[in-house]
Amino acid sequence: MIHRNIATALVLAGLAGSALASDGRNAGSLLLYPEFDNRTGAITVVTVTNADLKVGASDIGVEFIYIGKFGRNGQDLGCGEQNRSEIMTPADTITLLTNIHNPNQSQGYLYVFTKDTVTPFDPISHNYLTGNVMTVDGIAVLEYSINPVSYVGLPNMGTTDLDGDGFRDMDGCEYGANPAEILIPRFLGQGGNFQSELIMIALSGGTAFDTTVDFLIFNDNEEIFSSEHTFNCWEQISLLDISGIFDNEFLAMWTNHDPLEMIGAPTMETGWIHIEGAQANSHNTTIVDPAVYAVLVERVNGNPSLGAADLPFEKGTRTNGEFLPRSNLGDIIDVNCGP
């Protein structure tokens, strides 16, 4: 009964069915939206805003790259691309439904970058993009809303494609780097009312690579457990499908947990997660310490309309991320912008 009461309290507190704001974010030239969901009954609303308020500012091009993991009939698309371009004026904002903007894919992620408005439409630095993604269950029930991951374009002028390979490199030269470690400050013990999911995006190598992620899972008494999981390109997976360590009963019965926590609801177990890319492999290439990104979506009562999500905390940098090679060799062209 206490778990049901906690679920109700989360809803009333706004932790379910509402956005959890991420503070201190910077506008960028490249935005990563961790999920779009065009399945029947689901609606994804994506917003891109050009927050350029300079007097005399010019129009910019914005390219949307949808990376579809699954098609409309549930088939695996191998993270195929669908591209759409828009023109944005200064202070402009675009909000769209992804099932209209991209009707041929069912689930995956998307990224958006700024580009020149004239031929050859090169990607450029324009660090004024902000945005948001909101998922809606049915017609009018908000599931959750989060900001995209923002990458600053680094060249002061000209194209950001410094190595001319056609990829968006998050290498500290073209765009800001990815984090080395993902820190999720809380998960709730799974089972019963709570069935949470982790969205994972592989950011090194490309679509030909399977990425193995290392997990350090801490209970509420600093006790540490380890696990790993391998996925291709993009995945949205329940915590219990990653490891039984996340199970509330396991944490309560088989670990040295703190019997007084959660404070106010001691039968509800909690913990936190450390995530790091371990290795990415294609048929003939291995990348050690690949870049990955992960977002936890917490769900109450298994109800898709009662969810909450926020971007994780980050630590360190990895400069081997790129959108989005398709070769077994990954991105073989790189530029050295160091001293």
Describe this structure in words.
A hairpin with a 4-residue loop joins β3 (60-71) and β4 (76-88). Strands 11, 13, 14, 16, 17 and 20 form a 6-stranded antiparallel β-sheet that branches. The protein has a 5-stranded antiparallel β-sheet with strand order 4-3-6-1-9. The chain has a 4-stranded antiparallel β-sheet with strand order 5-2-7-8. It has 339 residues and is mainly beta. It starts with a helix and ends in a 16-residue tail after the last strand. The protein is globular and about 65 Å long. The protein has 4 helices and 21 strands.
Shape: globular
Give me the count of strands: 21
Order of helices and strands: HEEEEEHEEEEEEEEEEHHEEEEEE
Query: What is the arithmetic mean of pLDDT?
Result: 89
Query: Rg to the nearest angstrom?
Result: 20 Å
Strand content: over 45%
Q: What's the end-to-end separation, in Å? A: 61 Å
Fraction of helical residues: under 10%
Regions with little confidence, pLDDT below 50 for 5+ residues: 1-23
Structural class call reads mainly beta
How would you summarize this macromolecular structure in one to three sentences?
With 339 residues, the protein is mainly beta. 8% of the residues lie in helices and 45% in strands.
Fill in the keyword field for this structure.
globular, disordered N terminus, six-stranded antiparallel β-sheet, 4 helices, 339 residues, 45% strand, single chain, mainly beta, five-stranded antiparallel β-sheet
